[in-house]
Amino acid sequence: MHIEVDSHTHTIASGHAYSSLGENVAAAATQGIKLLAITEHGPAMPGSPHIWFFKNMRVIPRIMDGVGILRGIEANIINGKGELDVDDSLYPYLDIVLASLHEPVIEPSTKTIHTDTVIKAMSSRKIDVFAHGGNPIFPIDVDEIAKAAKAYNVLVEINNSSFTTSRPGSEKNCTSLAEAVGRHGGELTFGSDAHIACNVGRFVECIAFVERIGFPEKQILSTSSHSFMNFLQEKGKQNLEILLAQRTPSR
Ligand SMILES: [Zn+2]
Ligand SMILES: [Zn+2]
Predict the structure, then answer these.
(1) Near ion ligand 2, which residues have CB within 5 Å?
(2) What confidence category does residue 32 fall into, taking pLDDT thresholds of 50, 70 and 90?
């Protein structure tokens, strides 16, 4: 299995990551990544960049070292209404919006409340990816989440860092979440959640995980940059012409 898209990465701009954009892109090129999403934390996370950072991502070339660049954000779900820390004026500048539950931003509660909160965020139609949903700090009803993800055309992320340095104990929940996505006909994406260049495009644990549970490769969107671009286009993302022009089917 080869992964062409890394849908979740951070640079030094996130405040607690350690590599530059150029270093991340070079690492992505080395790993054979064709599409790299730059997804710094949204403003509710301490140390995250100012809104101008996100609006000014248009200065980043669309293609660097042969790698297509997606201008993204890892938004925070900030309350039980499923609202995000993304100003409405920012969406036209973004190619991809991840939504996450983070302890410094929203207090862990009950499984029912987490599930309801995430489904409300999905139903807003503002998000493209639900990130690191296997976090045991924020248990969710995996069937309800998988059904909503399918209904609202949201990708469910399997986060490589959840198997290495972050969110210990995620694997069991990732298994039940991925299996639910498989049952309900949704799609996964892989995010390295790299906070340093050497982890960009590195999916050793994600690949071993899906092989172990027998998850169908055709339901992993990040195996194809072509399919990933089609997904973004279907979701109405603008200003993707240069990336769309270079897409070539690989599966
Ligand atoms: Zn996160
Ligand atoms: Zn992240």
Answers:
(1) 74, 193
(2) very high
From residue 139, alpha-carbon distances to 62, 69, 147 in Å are 37, 32, 16
CATH architecture assignment, domain 5-245: Alpha-Beta Barrel (3.20)
Tell me the whole-structure pTM to 2 decimals: 0.96
Degrees to nearest 5, angle at CA 82 with 41 and 104: 45
When pLDDT is averaged across residues 8-31 and rounded to a whole number, the result is 97
Q: How close is the Cα of 248 to the center of ligand 1, in Å?
A: 30
Distance 133 CA to ligand 1 centre (A): 10
For the chain, give every domain's residue range: 5-245
**What residue has token string 């690191």?**
132
- Cα 129 to Cα 216: distance, rounded to the nearest angstrom: 19
Give the span between the Cα atoms of 121 and 78, in whole angstroms.
Answer: 10
Distance (Å) from CA 218 to ligand 1 centroid = 25
Separate counts of helices (H) and strands (E) for the chain: 8, 8
